[in-house]
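**User:** You know discrete backbone vocabularies at least as well as I do. Would you mind producing a protein record, from residues through to fold? Write it directly below this note and I will take it from there.

**Assistant:**
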Amino acid sequence: MNFLNKMERKFGRFAIHNLTKYIIGCYIIGYILMYMQALTGVNLMGYLYLSPYHILHFQIWRLVSWILIPPSSSNILFVVIMLLFYYSLGSSLERTWGAFRYNVYILSGMLFTVLGAFILYFVMGPASMFYAPAFSTYYINLSIFLAFALSYPDMQVLFMMIIPIKIKWLAWLDAAYILYDLVRGNWAVRTVIIASLLNFIIFFLATRNFSRISPKEIHRRQKFQKAVHPKMAPGITKHKCAVCGRTENDGDDLEFRFCSKCNGNYEYCQDHLFTHQHIK
């Protein structure tokens, strides 16, 4: 995490705020193109796929145009509910992690997907074009869901809009489905899955970032602080981040600073000092 802290101090001001909103906007454009394709009969979506073969033949736009391809569904109500659901998850993660870390998580997932497509092309050659539609934002969306479930495992959602269920159980179902695809599929399918979820693997299993933002871990640290400092009045803290609300009780490694560009005495933790929106 020290590396991310250093990167955030240098480049945090360039972070894209409300990134999920722009992703949803790309999907809306994609649905419009799908509708136009149905009306005109022109294979518009075929020009958007992440196909290294075509990219190397000067169709450079495919490096980013595949992001426009939305999740497939014929039910407009389901599409609206799904987009609102992912917007809620993504926005919550951005508020918790800060815009810079959320940017790194999403954009690295997109980068790994592109690299995975090229690896598959160099192994299979032009035959890899058959798998081009599989390189999509499907697993990137799934990585958002898995990240949220790992951070807030006990949060309840309405499964099928009826049954209340903890989000961690839905995440386990998704993990089982992914494992099934890995075992059943060939190496091309495995490349698609691994490349698209590599951001999740690195961000959580390698950096262990979830331990810092897990509500259970925060509660455990608060109990530890009370045990170490029994004379401290409960609820009284010296520092509090104006963005995420964390205090010095949430971790010994947290640092807090006041922002000279904000009007008023607003204090921020090291994760949001360089990425918050200045209050004027």
